[in-house]
Amino acid sequence: MSLFRKKDLSAAVAETREKGQLKRALGPFDLTMLGIGAVIGTGIFVLTGTGALKAGPALSVSFVIAAIACAFSALAYAEFASMAPVSGSAYTYSYATLGELIAWIIGWDLVLEYLFAVSSVSAGWSGYFQSLLSGFGIDLPLALTAAPGALGENVITYFNLPAFVIVMLLTFLLSRGITESKKANNIMVIIKLVVILLFIFVGVKYVKPENWVPFTPFGLEGVFSAAALVFFAFVGFDAVAAAAEETRNPKRDLPIGLLASLAICALLYVIVSLVMTGIVPYMDFENNISHPISLALQVAGANWFAGVVDLGAIMGMTTVMLVMLYGQTRIFFSMSRDGLLPKVFSRVHRQYRTPYGSTWILGTIAAFAGGLIPLDRLAELVNIGTLFAFAIVSVGVIVLRKTRPDLPRAFRCPGVPVVPLIAVGACLFLISKLEVITWAAFGIWFLIGLGVYFSYSQKHSMLNELSQ
């Protein structure tokens, strides 16, 4: 059936060798920094407070559960990335194993993970940036500090100007080239890692073990519920796979970048959550969930460090937005090259060697969304989209082992089919812990995507043209 026609992986790899394609400038260190840049941000500076209210001190266990779900999926991603070093991440992998319709659904689904995550994080970035400005006695006009209705019906706001401006600046940076973007990302990642390590060093002295008792006040259900929420803290590590075409030695470096960034982030999350709940009793986060790290420092009497944390949070969220927007442009680049989206998304700038038009279109959409839309439920919506994509990639590894055992694999996912099946089970389990309204919103988004596919993408597909 034409709905399940598959793209040949060998042909996909051959496309990357054509002249005028993306510039290969990333090594294993850059990829690890890219992964850490995408992961450490909102999760550690904001969601730790919300997660503590669901799991108590056992929040650290929730992070471990979410990390395990990601780790099994990361092994599947690593096998695909080493076998097919092309842009597109889960979209490309699904196209080669499960067919065009499934690939389209995944590509459409990844918009939730990448583009909407940029808009969501930009709003959090805006709050920390305004807090930092206030420390210098600078206050923006209230009407330009948040999206309409974001601060309640009694507060009139029209536009979140800082959120809009930061996304447009990152769009400009990405449009100029991957070399410039990676330098900026690496610097900001190092700064935020230093801030997190300083928090651990300063905070551990104020830990009171009695605050960890009881360790699981809401039982296992609370631990699993928090795991489904804080999964958002790991969203984005798969953006490393989207950088395949710009990696110098993708068969070796991509698995390193995927697994190293995930391991480093998981370790930091566990330590930070233990220190934080050891300083502050978990119930005290109820009225301070937006700045949990700052609250811990206030309780510890280290107010001098609060401004440093604000700077770390700003750096953390900036790199998240940078990598997420980067990943989205590369996925649309691949979908456009396959004919499923208009050609404007796959045109490469002669000088900068980037998908220039695509970057500005997607960046502008994300900027206006962050400035105009209060995205209260977006964390869970991003989660369900990501978990769905992870599950599909894990299934794809099993399918391709059976259908194309001849393909060279520089990295092989261990324990196939058991490990990929565990990944699928873990993802579906976490999805089941999300709220019903999230399922409903995801269903609506899914139906819109099907409408676009059947009205445009199916007819313009490159595989459709080749079959005629």
UniProtKB/TrEMBL annotation:
UniProt xrefs under Pfam families: AA_permease_2
Keywords tagged on the record: Membrane, Transmembrane, Transmembrane helix, Transport
Mode of membrane association: Multi-pass membrane protein
Keyword Kinase belongs to the record: no
Gene3D superfamilies documented for this protein: Amino acid/polyamine transporter I
Keyword check for Signal: no
Cellular component, GO annotation: membrane
One annotated GO molecular function: amino acid transmembrane transporter activity
Protein's cellular compartments: Membrane
InterPro entries to which the protein is assigned, alphabetical: AA/rel_permease1
Transmembrane segments: 31-53, 59-80, 101-125, 155-174, 186-204, 224-244, 256-282, 302-327, 356-375, 381-400, 412-431, 437-456
Coiled coil stretches, renumbered: none
Main location: membrane
PANTHER family per the UniProt record, alphabetical: CATIONIC AMINO ACID TRANSPORTER 4 (PTHR43243:SF4), INNER MEMBRANE TRANSPORTER YGJI-RELATED (PTHR43243)
Name the UniProt record assigns to this protein: Amino acid permease
Source organism: Thermoactinomyces mirandus
